[in-house]
């Protein structure tokens, strides 16, 4: 979401006059849960949202929640401090505990998923229809770099959305085009305390390493503002490609006939006439409809598509490949995607497939 905030100095406090534009996405919701860790971004989100709501005659009920992951000794006290600040602002607050054993590898990813699950459960219990998250322009830039380094396609490089949905809940990011420096300046101007999580600068993790590179990249012109603009432009292009794929799906895909229940058949001539990007997305959608082993990796979907194109242009017998629990077969003019047999029954098909394995799909097609 673009806001007037981006035209102001990047270290200036956010004034009340900017709040209606920032929090316009809140207005359709009767109750919103704000995720607050105690760091500067989420503390500013809570503070600004409470200011905005206090200045309105009506609007959504606000509640706040803090997840204690149990990974740092200070976390419990920090969560209590957030609760005290929320109470001061007149916002009800809950502390959510991540219980159970913690993984030894991929701890940040696991903590992120656990945090979402806890917040989603708390939102539903409270009757909230949305969760507000404090991602900033800096986070958006970091996400674009992170996904670029991992070979993402257009859907991944479009970054985070200002408003999204997951499991029946809206995910709102009202600060997505606001620089972190403005949030820190806002808190400092109001003498509001916040904490800094040391894991956010721990070089053992990829995101902190990217964060440490930000000043160097900015010196070359690749700053957070420019990366955020890039994400918006890619999102715009991705949306257009998804619309084109929707149209192609209606024209090319046929759901399984009686002799192949559950399978997806594609009109080979129409499929071959599609631009590569649309055909690739359409193939991904077909695999997603019937596959049993997703999510999947974009590079492997691309490899499968290239092999399929080669087989179509130079026929050399039946083409059969498995990917993400789906079997893609081409025999003459018949292109079909169906559920693959269990791995133990695939024999040479599984062993000889150059693309067998998982692929990351987005809404309906490839995403990573």
From TrEMBL:
GO terms for cellular component: cytoplasm. It holds the Pfam family ATP_bind_3. Residues 32-212 form the tRNA(Ile)-lysidine/2-thiocytidine synthase N-terminal domain. GO terms for biological process: tRNA modification. It catalyses: cytidine(34) in tRNA(Ile2) + L-lysine + ATP = lysidine(34) in tRNA(Ile2) + AMP + diphosphate + H(+). It comes from the Bacteria. The N-terminal region contains the highly conserved SGGXDS motif, predicted to be a P-loop motif involved in ATP binding. This is tRNA(Ile)-lysidine synthase. It comes from Xanthobacter autotrophicus (strain ATCC BAA-1158 / Py2). The gene is tilS.
């Amino acid at each position: 979401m673009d806001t007037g905030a981006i035209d102001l100095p990047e270290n200036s406090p956010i004034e009340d006059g900017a709040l209606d534009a920032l929090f316009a996405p809140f207005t359709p919701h009767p109750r919103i849960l704000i995720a607050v860790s105690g760091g500067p971004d989420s503390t500013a989100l809570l503070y600004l949202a409470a200011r905005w709501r206090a200045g309105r005659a009506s609007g959504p009920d606000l509640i706040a929640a803090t997840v204690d992951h149990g990974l740092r000794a200070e976390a419990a006290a920090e969560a209590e401090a957030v609760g005290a600040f929320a109470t001061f602002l007149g916002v009800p607050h809950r502390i959510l505990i991540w219980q159970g054993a913690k993984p030894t590898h991929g701890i940040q990813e696991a903590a992120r998923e656990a945090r979402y699950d806890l917040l989603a459960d708390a939102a539903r219990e409270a009757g909230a229809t949305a969760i507000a998250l404090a991602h900033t322009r800096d986070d958006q830039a970091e996400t674009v770099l992170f996904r670029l380094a991992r070979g993402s396609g257009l859907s991944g490089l479009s970054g985070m959305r200002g408003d999204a949905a997951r499991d029946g809940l809206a995910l709102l990011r009202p600060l997505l085009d606001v620089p972190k420096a403005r949030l820190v300046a806002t808190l400092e101007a109001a003498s509001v305390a916040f904490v800094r999580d040391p894991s956010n600068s721990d070089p053992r993790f990829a995101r902190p390493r990217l964060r440490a590179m930000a000043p160097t990249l900015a010196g070359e012109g690749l700053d957070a503002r420019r990366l955020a603009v890039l994400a918006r432009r890619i999102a715009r292009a991705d949306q257009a490609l998804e619309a084109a794929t929707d149209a192609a799906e209606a024209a090319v895909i046929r759901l399984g006939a009686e002799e192949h229940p559950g399978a997806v058949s594609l009109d080979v001539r129409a499929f071959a006439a599609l631009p590569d990007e649309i055909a690739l997305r359409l193939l991904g959608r077909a695999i997603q409809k019937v596959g049993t082993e997703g999510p999947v990796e974009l590079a492997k979907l691309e490899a499968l598509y290239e092999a399929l194109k080669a087989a179509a242009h130079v026929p050399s017998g039946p083409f059969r490949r498995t990917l993400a629990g789906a079997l893609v077969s081409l025999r003459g003019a018949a292109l079909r995607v169906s559920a693959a047999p269990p791995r133990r029954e695939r024999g040479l098909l599984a062993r000889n497939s150059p693309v067998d394995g998982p692929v990351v799909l987005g809404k309906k097609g490839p995403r990573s």
